[in-house]
Amino acid sequence: MLKQLLTDALVNIGGWTTNKKIVVIESDDWGAIRTPDKRAFDNMLKAGIPVDKSLFCRLDTLVDHNELESVFSILDKYKDSRGNSAIITANAVVANPDFEKIKADNYERYHYETVDKTLERYFPGNSPFSLWKEGIDNKLFFPQFHGREHVNVPFWLDVLRQGDEVYTKAFENGCWGISNDIYKKYNKSIQATFDCTEKEDLLFLEGSIADGLDVFENLFGYRSETFIPNNYIFPEELFPALLSSGVTTMQGMKYQKLPYLQSVARRKVRRLNGQRMGEGPGLLQIVRNAHFEPSVFPYQQRDKALTTCLNQLKMSFLLKKPAVISCHRFNFSGRLEPENRDINLRLLDRFLMEVTKRWPDVIFMDSASLSKMIK
Question: How far is it, in rounded angstroms, from Cα 154 to Cα 14?
Answer without folding.
Answer: 37
